[in-house]
Amino acid sequence: MIVLYFSVSVHPNKADPSYQVTLVNSTLWQNYGTPNMAGQLSMTWNSSLVESENVNVELWGYREVNRNTARSSPLQAEIRYLYSLGRNIPNTGDFSFIPEPREEFSVWELGNIRITASSKSEGERYVQALWSEGHVLAWHLEPSFREDSSGWAEKKCRQWDDLEKKLPNFLDELIHCPCTLAQARADTGRFHTDYTCNIETGSMCTNHPGSVHCVRAIQASSSHGSGQQCCYDHTGALVLTGDSVGGSTPDRAHNWGSSPYREPPRVPGYSHWLYDVISFCYCCLWSDLCHIYLNHRPSSGCRRYQPPRAGVVFGDLHFITFDGLSYTFSGRGEYYLVFSADRELRVQARTEQLKLKN
């Protein structure tokens, strides 16, 4: 998902929360309509960021549809205004409502809340606005979901299972996880903190019970644009789905997307939610078919993980290479310290005799 504010595009995980619409009690939003999940939904925002006494509260949906075109990807991303939750309401910085099923919009299972000045038309694009993060639209699904959420979710989970069996295998091209939490936090060149399970901020790790910290691979896989996730327990050990439902789960679509970004399943945020998060809701949160989800998202483990090594130059031109070779070289001139043609990486160095005034 991309959050738009004053023509600035930024992934929601990196956006300042003060510039977003906050969904109060996100667990209720995500599971609305399942047992014991009902009542009012509430949101808050910084009212000073919308220069208007009154505002509109809108729901926008996202989906990826098959357009049968000659594009490199048969799927096309679509984000669209669906309907308004409130029009011309006072800009007090908070709004609550009791959602009703909207069967005509049930095909839209992922979306965002958008707040604009009341002077703007419904669904008008390219205007000053505040957006919420993307979330599962459980709260507006058809009446059959509220009547039997478990049965509805089981059907969806099995449909997803059939779809996954037809899609290409992406697991073999993923980077393996670091074996320990210390390695994961030190390997900043290849892994970054998963903000939904962060030991530094005390986030709850809701989707990975038993874990205290997760990281995600920075780089998407080359062929399929997939992502790796690695989770660790309080002892620093890697948690595997073979041992716990809270274990590390890879992603068919990298959360940060991958080039060319506009084409599914490489759209930042959104594609990940459609391929990896909504399916988790179907199988693990709303029904008892989590084994189906974990069968398609097994932990990769750390058998082939290789910690990064340092190359060092120090003193009177003493060198230690990445593979541990040590030698001394006192030649003067310009040299390549690192050269990788396939990565288009060149690190040059100039050596010359030291000149001291004394």
From TrEMBL:
Sorted UniProt keywords: Membrane, Transmembrane, Transmembrane helix
Q: Which InterPro entries match?
A: AMOP_dom, Epithelial_Barrier/Signaling, VWF_type-D
Identify the SMART domains for this entry: AMOP
Say if the entry is tagged with keyword Membrane: yes
Q: Using the record's annotation, list all stretches that form the VWFD domain.
A: 309-358
Q: Which domain of life is it from?
A: Eukaryota
Q: Where does the record place the AMOP domain? A: 149-309
Where can this protein be found?
Answer: Membrane
Using the UniProt record, give the first listed, main subcellular location.
Answer: membrane
> One Pfam family name from the record?
VWD
According to UniProt, the name of this protein is AMOP domain-containing protein
Lineage here is: Eukaryota, Metazoa, Chordata, Craniata, Vertebrata
